[in-house]
Specification:
single chain, 279 residues, alpha+beta, 9-stranded mixed beta sheet, 5 helices, 33% strand
């Protein structure tokens, strides 16, 4: 197998750390978002639950049963739906969840303790409920090739040939196991996940209440090597991570403006006075 001579590189950073796989300009609007879901289809006169990937781009969305991805970066975050404010609260993106991460509530980890919880049952019930409400999310970023896309109402979308940039949040434990296991095979072979396509397929599972959900299976696809534009793609995703984190930290700062004590305010005032005097 002849490998492409093009190499990924990031200035002033270790490449593996930069991609986020060692712990195992793209804008928000230019990224397509992929989510796993289950739709109802009729086969031989019977209604069946079909696992599919929903691809949302701008105001349009369509489906595919199979997608092939090249992963350029991954990060992790804490996330929780705020039913009172009707918004998704989240932490900054990080290579690890074993540290305290600033969040949009102005707290850390959305109130969840960092690191491994040794005895969950010993915690007070309200804290158990809080921890259960906060989801661990792995954010996958890369280039995707959609196989046989279709609209649920019929027909196929146009202009989706080739690869395009995507982001995908994965929080299901089994999906994470399958994807991480496949990525791990590449890492052991010292192959970047950006050099090798990974094929993602859905599998329908059922919750205790009877509602269906999708688990993402992953397998190794084709080795494609690297092309000349891949280094720019990687840098764009790192810029996206930085921009996302700047938003979260700005929300964290806004929530903490009024928490400064009067003593701290006096210190800040004195510092300002000294700076004014020196000028």
């Amino acid at each position: 197998m002849e490998q492409n001579a093009v190499a990924l590189k990031v200035e002033n950073m270790n490449l593996t750390d930069a991609m986020g796989f060692s712990a195992p300009a793209v804008s928000q609007s230019s990224l397509s978002r992929i989510t796993g879901t289950v739709i109802q289809e009729v086969e031989d006169g019977k209604v069946v639950q079909t696992p599919v990937f929903k691809i949302t781009s701008d105001d349009d969305f369509y489906f595919a049963r199979t997608v092939e991805v090249r992963l350029f970066a991954e990060r992790q975050k804490w996330q929780r739906w705020d039913s009172e404010k009707k918004t998704m609260q989240k932490s900054v993106l990080s290579n690890s969840l074993n540290i305290d991460l600033k969040d949009t509530l102005g707290t850390f980890n959305l109130g969840r303790p960092s690191g491994y919880i040794k005895d969950f049952q010993a915690l007070p019930k309200d804290q158990q409920d809080l921890i259960r409400s906060v989801n661990r999310v792995k954010v996958m970023m890369g280039m995707v090739k959609v196989v046989d896309p279709f609209y649920e109402s019929g027909g196929a979308p146009s202009n989706v040939d080739g690869e395009f940039a995507f982001v995908m949040d994965v929080k299901n434990r089994d999906s994470l196991k399958f994807i991480d296991g496949t990525v791990g095979k590449l890492i052991k072979k010292k192959i970047s996940p950006a050099e090798h396509r990974i094929t993602l397929l859905g599998e329908t599972r059922t919750l205790p209440n009877g509602n269906p959900y999708m688990v993402t299976n992953a397998s190794l696809g084709e080795f494609v090597g690297l092309s000349e534009g891949d280094n720019e793609i990687l840098q764009n995703f790192l810029d996206y991570v930085e921009s996302s984190n700047e938003y979260v930290t700005s929300k964290w700062s806004e929530e903490n403006v009024e928490t400064i004590s009067s003593q701290d305010q006096d210190i800040v005032t004195n510092i300002v006075d000294v700076e004014d005097f020196d000028q």
